[in-house]
User: Fold these one by one.
Assistant:
Number 1:
Amino acid sequence: MSREPANQHPAAQDPDNQHPAGPEPASDKELLSRTALGVFRLSGQFLSVSERLAKPAGLTASWWQVLGAVLREDLPVSGIARVMGMTRQGVQRVADLLVGKGLAEYVPNPAHRRAKLLRPTDEGRAAVRRIDPGHAALAARLAAELGEEQFAETVRVLEQLTAAMDAVAEA
């Protein structure tokens, strides 16, 4: 009578094969924890790289983040906070610093008298342009590391996760 190896998964010994072989799937709680830890680590990595890219242009990562949010259209502080996933108070502090440094200015908001719009100045736009070569080089290195398809899939999954978090946060 032959015996199965002692280290074989019990499901492989199931004569009816009702239990698939292989490790147990991770629980929802474990998947959430692993996702959160991965995102926290990734956030730290992005902040570190962003600080290195922004410093030669005379910016910080948060200054670059806020200026980047208003390059295409002027936005109120609350709109920047929503788009960038930052607190309104944090954006207000950075916006005031940018205005004080001459990198941005407040302009009237036709939709709301009290909530002025933030607009980059020519100096602010020039500072962001100085970051562009390093930003492009980082993008190229990531694309080479991941491959174009995997890079695009990563973006899609992160956007999907962000939308799902928005949905459950509102519930």
Number 2:
Amino acid sequence: QTETPKLLPDFKVRLLADAATGQLVEVRFGQRSLGNGPQAFQLLQQTIKEQIAGSPYADEVEIEIDADFDLNYEHVISAVSACTGEISESSDGSKPKISRFVEKIKFAPPRQSQRAAAGG
């Protein structure tokens, strides 16, 4: 039995933390830095939407979230929410529209933040 090749790649989201405070230092999508704070998660959501929205193969995509061990959990939840989809208001005032981007999200094994690993 041969495996069919994937038509969309899997994506990796990296979340870097300040080891002392657990605050988010940087969000990365692949090799691209998206900054930090709420705008980084909005940009992450927009980037994923552009990459896979409307593709008939979107249900095959898997996103791996690789977060520093010290990261405050709220930032992990924000990343999961941004990757999963979006809720948009309907133009006629009825129920909001839910758009799903990705069904499969996995987590990389926890890793020490780079600052903690360096002894800082």
